[in-house]
Amino acid sequence: MYVPVKYCIVLALILGCILASGCIVPTKETPSSKSPNGGTNYLVSGTGAVPSPGCESGAPVAATATPIPDDTRFLTQVPTYSAGTDTGPAYRNLSYRVDPTPTTPNYQNIYNNELSLKDYTVAYTYDLKNPPLVINFDIKPKMDTRTIWYEDRFGSYDSNGRRGDVYVTADQLSPNAWFSVVVRDRDTGTIVLEDGYGRTYGGVTNRTVSVRSSGNYQIDMSGNEVNVTVRMYIIP
User: Fold this and answer.
1) What digits encode the pLDDT tens for the residues 113-150?
2) Theoretical Cys-Cys bridge with 185: which of 22, 153, 168, 190, CB 3.0 to 4.6 Å?
3) DSSP state of 142
4) 84-96 per-position pLDDT tens digit
5) pTM attached to this predicted model
6) Which domain holds residue 161?
7) Beta strands in 129-177 (DSSP E)
8) How many domains does the chain have?
9) Are residue 48 and residue 126 in the same domain, yes or no?
């Protein structure tokens, strides 16, 4: 059978193109090569184009990873810290409490006097503009000397069958000693502060009390059988 020459030339060109192109199959994807958005992760080895198992004659085509482009536009590069040159704040052991530096308020005395009271009252007025008004009183009650008698329980008996008498002298606070400080609003007569010693006030001889609201006040100090040092001050 005779085949024209021109057909032979065309057939030879087609076979040559097929042999030159080799055997290529579409890119194979594995579950581990998927990126979170569904694309191919080119940083995983073994992905990309691979030779088809059915091609025995062509040389395998190596997979080529596509690099991820650099992107540093959202950060600003700065010098790094060197060991031994850190000038930052020193760290402390947080298990130890650090107390703040105490500060001493600048007090202004408005009254400082010692009173000897025996059923007596003294009164003062003060227009308090910058509260608080602090009042400290230190009380020295009158001491009474008391003699206590009791029968000696370990002595020998006398001719009357009695043991000897024992007398003990002791000092005690006078039961009649008391002190009271009362602060009243001069406009309304309302008592805003009342404290003291003895009677219903208790037995504490040194007390500090304060008035924490401004106003025009009258301060009454009363007592009996006491010497009391009274100090009043404000913080200007």
Assistant:
1) 999 999 999 999 999 998 999 999 999 999 988 888 87
2) 190
3) P
4) 555 555 444 445 5
5) 0.51
6) 143-174
7) 133-141, 143-151, 165-173
8) 3
9) no
